[in-house]
Amino acid sequence: MPGTSKLDISTLESRDPFKQFNCWFLEAKQNKNIKNPNAACLATCGLDGHPSCRMIQVGDFSDKGFLFFTNYDSKKAKELSQNKQCSLCFYWDHLDRQIVLKGRAEKIKEHESMDYFSRCPVAQQIKSLSSVQGKIIKDKQELVDRQQRLAKEFETTKKMPVPETYCGYLFIPDEFDFWQGNQDDIDDRLRFRKKHEHEDQELVTPGEGFWVIERLGA
Ligand SMILES: Cc1cc2nc3c(=O)[nH]c(=O)nc-3n(C[C@H](O)[C@H](O)[C@H](O)COP(=O)(O)O)c2cc1C
């Protein structure tokens, strides 16, 4: 029915953006048409001022933030070492939903990354270890050889070498922008952001804790 919002402050599952995210994420996970609900686009910007983006796999998330893993020699890691401010964008086509998160990424402790790595399936560990992300290579064969060597090594030692460049980041959001597409009707958009000091409370709806909620044109 035109004018009926699918996303409205009055009918939110939660006024805590992490809990609201979790509700949408669970729906995305339960939707059989969504192959990879954990995939998100990460945008970073280094000192050259030129934004770059790429898909990543978001591992765990909690009210502390969103975990992701990458290679410390990669372009994204270099840019994050110059500028922690970054954005994440989830898009779930079959639900007509997008969530854009603005925040910063903090490198997690090395032992935490290693702990996560040790819990990954062996095939994934081998893939990470043989990755030379972003480096120019002569041909694919050198990666295939490296992968085979690592698989053989594992077969005999049952131990995987500790990857020097594997590292994890915790993305800590300070803004969540929920977008709901509505076929044949106006799309909905709600932004959760942290309350500013001395701001006019009349224009915003209080969320949980220090969060406020605003409706935006979609
Ligand atoms: C669905 C999907 C998930 C991906 N997940 C990751 C990931 O979790 N970590 C990662 O480093 N690269 C991941 N990649 C590869 C990146 O998109 C990218 O090509 C790579 O990290 C190099 O990016 P950079 O050179 O901009 O740093 C993924 C790609 C796709 C399509």
From TrEMBL:
Its EC number is 1.4.3.5. Residues 27-144 form the Pyridoxamine 5'-phosphate oxidase N-terminal domain. Keywords: Flavoprotein, FMN, Oxidoreductase. GO terms for biological process: pyridoxine biosynthetic process. GO terms for molecular function: FMN binding; pyridoxamine phosphate oxidase activity. Its cofactor is FMN. Residues 166-216 form the Pyridoxine 5'-phosphate oxidase dimerisation C-terminal domain. It holds the Pfam family PNPOx_N. It is an enzyme of class 1 (oxidoreductase). It comes from the Eukaryota. Pathway: Cofactor metabolism; pyridoxal 5'-phosphate salvage; pyridoxal 5'-phosphate from pyridoxamine 5'-phosphate: step 1/1; Cofactor metabolism; pyridoxal 5'-phosphate salvage; pyridoxal 5'-phosphate from pyridoxine 5'-phosphate: step 1/1. The keyword Oxidoreductase applies. Belongs to the pyridoxamine 5'-phosphate oxidase family. Catalyzes the oxidation of either pyridoxine 5'-phosphate (PNP) or pyridoxamine 5'-phosphate (PMP) into pyridoxal 5'-phosphate (PLP). This is pyridoxal 5'-phosphate synthase. It comes from Brachionus plicatilis (Marine rotifer).
